[in-house]
Amino acid sequence: MEKRKLSFWQIWNMSFGFLGIQMGFALQNANASRILQIFGADVHELSWFWIIAPLMGLIVQPIIGHYSDKTWSRFGRRKPYFLVGAILASIGLVLMPQADMFIAFLPALWVGAGMLMIMDASFNIAMEPFRALVGDNLRTDQRTLGFSVQTALIGFGAVVGSWLPYALHHWFGVSNRTSLGVVPDNLIWSFVIGAAILIISILVTITTTKEYSPEELASFDADSKESTEEESSSLMDIFEDFKKMPTTMRQLSWVQFFSWFGLFGMWVFATPAIAQHIYGLPYTDSSSSSYQDAGDWVGILFGIYNLVSAFYAFALPYIAKKIGRKRTHSISLIIGGLGLLSIYIMPNENWLIISMIGIGIAWASILAMPYAILAGSISPKKMGVYMGIFNFFIVIPQIINALIGGPLVKYAYNNEAIFALMISGLSFLIAAVLVYKVKDVDDVVQTN
């Protein structure tokens, strides 16, 4: 038996929930450091608070991957996880910028960090099964398109999330000014709107997408049938699966390590780096009107790189057919690395748009190419758990960066956060070189 060929719009609806997930992620990535600084965090402490994000991914994604592989109910295989994750993430989005409401019980900074933890755990609950769903539902010749559409929706969602605070302030007159320890109104409303769109987009996927049953998936895997023993396997089998991971996955792990080490540094330190290096503010400033303007502009810049990634994602399948997935990914990472490094020499905030174009090209490829390469090397019956295990190589570099990034900024870079972005650029370039060591087992390159 062979999986049915899906239309473009069926693939689009299947991944539409990623629009809301990434809108929430974008709001978090562009504004969490700013919110935590408003609540009292120092620049060098930011990476320690951000360690929550990769820790949640490390714990949650393999577990959700394992159980979503074993789940089948009248609601589906992956769908229940989408919905539960979306509801919990929405709660975190609404409460994080309003953590000062709980100041009678705990310091706002700690409540804000707790909401960040809830958001990240919930995003991971919803996101991991989406990756596996593409592997479940699409034939080999449609997987690159599937992950590219997913990347495009991630990009569009991130653009809306990144630009929303700026738009609410400049287009709708919602204040972006703050008093000591209070998050501006434009941020609060942005997070509330993001929570609503997250729920709606997940419901679109749930109501329009059909999943294959476990029996159907087993029939597509000609080389292996699921046995009763496997069906009753325990969560501890994740460690055995980790030891038996395919060679391609091991090789991709190093590419992922340096890619995500670089991304994490950019997300954590972009706001203070640009506020200091481009706007000329002292590292101790987190409440002036200039700092809020810098924070809003970082949101615009993040939106630009996500917008670029959304459109570049549509080109990825065609580029990969011509030059191969490995070369496509390597070139994209080089362009992104140069984009990050160029931030240092830009004369003002408007020139940073050029840097973001390069970063957007790399971001699109990071979200699509490794998964397209990986999906061809693993069995359908292990798709969920291996997509979850693959997340180890996304979260471990982020945890390492979280532990060392803050001390490096404080002691090695003399509180100049711009150098954290330079290290991120170098990390992208290293990842680009390591791509060539990966064996892509089912890549198809057109020679005519």
TrEMBL record:
Residues 248-448 form the Major facilitator superfamily (MFS) profile domain. Pfam families: MFS_1. It comes from the Bacteria. It is found in: Membrane. Keywords: Membrane, Transmembrane, Transmembrane helix, Transport. InterPro entries: MFS, MFS_dom, MFS_trans_sf. GO terms for cellular component: membrane. It is a multi-pass membrane protein. GO terms for molecular function: transmembrane transporter activity. The chain crosses the membrane at residues 48-68, 80-96, 102-123, 144-167, 187-206, 252-274, 294-316, 328-345, 351-373, 385-405, 417-436. This is MFS transporter. The lineage of its organism: Bacteria, Pseudomonadati, Bacteroidota, Flavobacteriia, Flavobacteriales.
